[in-house]
Structure prediction request, 192 residues.
Amino acid sequence: MTKPAGTDSYLGLYFWAAFVVICLWLYYLNPTFFEPDNIRGWFGDNLYLGLLIYVALFCVRAFTLIPHTPLLVTGILVFPPLPLFFANLLGVNGTVAIIYFLSRRLHFDRYFDTRYPLQIGKLSQLLRNREFPVIVLWSFALVLPTDLIVYVCSVLRIRPIKAFVGVSIGEGVISALYIFGGAAGVEWLLEQ
Prediction:
């Protein structure tokens, strides 16, 4: 039995819409739960469950191709820095796996080819010359979409281990700067 055309292309939208509907429903049932002190307290009492939810949201984000920075900033406000850092790395690797192994099935090829044709051409040429350093540096750069480098690695059939390790190093360094620097900044602001 064949699936209707275009079903997979809406998968990310379905996940995102379901998440928004669940959050709105929870807000309707208990609006005080969403106050910042209550959220921080709940995640403090349920750290491992909270980190699991964070990693799940991080991976679902891969289907939507939304940048992970808003989720990371939220995590900085809610979680202790070290567990957040490891959860963030787990989420990064989950995202790499989703994009690397499912990019054609989820029609990311159409998205990236129409949205970033010039960047894909330049990136493909760079990757043919120096795969690993380009992956690491691209993943570290704040203004460049990491999902794009993973997609190009998948298209060019660069070994998955290079994509995973390269993105982990680049995203790990930038995430450490965000998380530990952001946590120190939040702590400083709360002391003022």
The chain has a mean pLDDT of 83.
